[in-house]
Design brief:
alpha/beta; Rossmann fold; seven-stranded parallel β-sheet; three-stranded mixed β-sheet; 11 helices; 14 strands
């Protein structure tokens, strides 16, 4: 059994590689020659140099692989040119999945996001059947992931045995870069968050997400999507829990939505001048103020996805960030 993993140097991808190797699977990974591969150090993987924007390099990499895991994406809520999000997340996905279709892989798993599902409130957690509703937020990451799913389903209809997985907010160990999810935790740990906007998120351990990918390949129904999540939690509850685990005060000031939105616009203007990422943007404020709660029972019941207690996940993540120098000394 040989699996190809795109995005293997990333947070979810590198965790997936580790879980596949534990199961005795041969793993080939697509990496650019300029990629930082430190997250794969010590792992016995077959390196295939290429780029998901280069269709031919992906076609060569997927040859003689039984399973494809397409985790590669640009996970960012601000980039100087939004087109790059669509190039990587939409066009790159088309390249990878078309290569898998022509090579005849036995199963393909595409890593989407709950951002492609939307934010549907706290009263009734959303499942896989709801309609995407974040278009008007102006967030290009959410839009690109939604459009990528549409393209993935078109390729599935052509005959690719594809399963889509939609992870929630993934946290845990080895978030080396870190991702926006890891940075949020670090902002609390490093006391860089003077205040917060209230909203709701679904949190999940990165190792559980990796296992969910493998179970999706083994048990997932072709053409279906599975929300890989765990616990729904308000942002204030999340920050309080990080504070309890770390022994620090959580951000204490709740910022009114109109004020936060104005700050988002102001930071966007500054970013255009400085070319540096803004602290927050208006689309980020719009999304953060929503309750993105999800019903994850489909993945649990059909795939057997693990559900590590979120407090335990936060404890591991905080310890890892501290041990690896991401948290400044008080």
């Amino acid at each position: 059994m040989r699996a190809l993993v795109t995005g293997a140097t990333g947070f979810v991808g590198s965790s997936l590689v580790r879980e596949l190797l534990k199961g005795g699977v041969e793993v080939r990974v697509v990496v650019r020659k300029s990629s930082d591969t430190s997250s794969l150090d010590g792992l016995e993987v077959d390196l295939a140099y290429g780029d998901i924007l280069d269709a031919e390099s992906v076609r060569m990499a997927v040859m003689d692989c039984d399973t494809l895991y397409h985790t590669a994406a640009l996970y960012a809520f601000w980039v100087p040119k939004s087109k790059v999000l669509y190039d990587i997340n939409v066009e790159g996905t088309k390249n990878v999945l078309n290569a898998a279709l022509t090579s005849g892989v036995g199963k393909a798993v595409y890593t989407s996001s709950v951002a492609a599902v939307g934010a549907h409130g706290a009263e009734e957690p959303a499942n896989e059947e709801v309609e995407f509703n974040l278009w008007k937020t102006g967030d290009h990451y959410s839009r690109s992931k939604y459009l990528a799913e549409l393209e993935a389903l078109k390729i599935c209809q052509k005959g690719l045995p594809l399963v889509i997985v939609n992870p929630g907010m993934v946290i845990g160990v080895r978030d080396t870069r870190p991702t926006p999810s890891g940075k949020l935790m670090l902002d609390v740990l490093n006391r860089k968050m003077p205040g917060y906007i209230e909203g709701g998120i679904n949190l999940v351990d990165v190792k559980d997400v990796a296992r969910g990918h493998i179970q999706a390949a083994e048990k997932g129904r072709v053409g279906e999507r599975y929300i890989l999540g765990n616990e729904n939690m308000s942002l204030s509850e999340y920050y309080r829990l990080i504070g309890e685990v770390a022994g620090i005060k959580r951000p204490g000031r709740r910022i009114p939505y109109p004020v936060a939105l104005l700050l988002g616009y102001a930071y966007q203007v500054m970013a255009r001048v400085t070319k540096r990422p803004p602290i927050v943007t208006a689309p980020m404020v719009r999304i953060a103020s929503k309750y993105s709660y999800f019903d994850c029972s489909k993945a649990v019941n059909e795939l057997g996805m693990p559900q590590t207690p979120i407090r335990e996940t936060i404890e591991k993540a905080v310890a890892w960030f501290r041990e690896n120098g991401y948290v400044r000394q008080a």
